[in-house]
Write the structure tokens for this entry.
Amino acid sequence: MEKIGFGGGCHWCTEAVFQTLKGVEKVAQGWIASEGEHDSFSEAVIVYFEEGKVDLASLTAIHLYTHSCSSEHAMRKKYRSAVYTFSEAQATAVQAIIKRLQSEFDKPIITKVLPFEAFKENEEQYQNYYLKNAENQFCQTYIQPKFTLLMQRFSEQVDERKQNRH
């Protein structure tokens, strides 16, 4: 089982997106810290996946398309746009994937590739947030549009059995 961390927007949204994908076995939702100037905790998830069923390129592309990967904004400390890697090889691969995907975006991608340092899991009541609260206004406003984008752009990556839960 491989793992990778993703941060960029609300961890409830990020969790919901990755929970729908083929090959994703678990999504741990909370806060990740890296090192140096990125050592503060920022909302993020750790995605546990089977590389034979979903590859790093697909996961990275889905991450970039489902959050504001080219937008600096006032909330970037809370919502750091990052991919947190667990090895040098993984970091090198993700950097190459982002570089390759840059041509698909109008503005420069600001997403940083950072080494994973620490994780704090969210409280149980907030785990599986969308699955427990699909009808609330937050989920309808912020998460549902991400599912629409997933189905339009990445439908081959969506596990229909998981998607039916949404």
